[in-house]
Amino acid sequence: MSPEERAAAMMAKLDEFQALILNFQHHDPNEIRRVAGVARFAPDLIVPTIATVTSFPPAAQRNLFDTPGNQLLVRSHDSLGPVVQRLNTLADGLEFTRNSGMAEAGAQALDVYTWAKSYSKRRDATALRPYVARLSKVVKKVLNRRKRKAKSSPAPSPLPQGAQGFLASTVVPPKPAVDDVYPDYFNEALDRATKK
Q: What angle is formed at CA 161 by the lines to CA 157 and CA 166, rounded to 5 degrees?
């Protein structure tokens, strides 16, 4: 199955899934504040309201609250919670899977760029130079958006044997700083690609 066919099959399954959602509404940025503001009352207010309406006949006679319908909404809300959590996890995993594949391909592309940059200096590589120029522009553009590695400060000099530093007994060792968000294989490929 090709990637396009696989994506089309997933979209068809998502259409089936969406059809199972009763009264499905698309996310509306214009209404989100109103809906969120009103919905925050629901979890703590619905159950006592059901108790009030079912226990006090004058409250039931007012027909202000649809007890059976709202009981069904509460059950639906509670039962869909794990589904929403699973969908969020699935969406996160799908995005990570997509990006992992692209990261591997990007590291390989940097290796090709490194080779091409070196090879393009030969006399017989005239035809390669426009490609190297294009690759160079892309690498420089991406590097301008990349966070630079923080320069590490020098380690403090060790204390003489038996000596204790100021407040040594209460000092918690700091967590090691994370140098970079990129994996080592990518950083190595990037270092090779950016060497002059």
A: 60
Domain that holds residue 72: 3-146+181-194
Over residues 175-195, the mean pLDDT reads: 70
Q: Is residue 33 part of a domain?
A: yes
Which segments of the chain does DSSP mark as H helices, in order?
Answer: 3-19, 32-39, 42-55, 57-61, 67-119, 129-145, 184-194
Residue 169 lies in a domain: no
What lies within 8 Å, CB to CB, of 74 at 6+ separation is 46, 47
Domain count of the chain? 1
Of 52 and 163, more confident: 52
- Domain presence at residue 16: yes
Flag whether pLDDT at 101 surpasses 80. yes
Counted residue by residue, the chain has a size of: 196
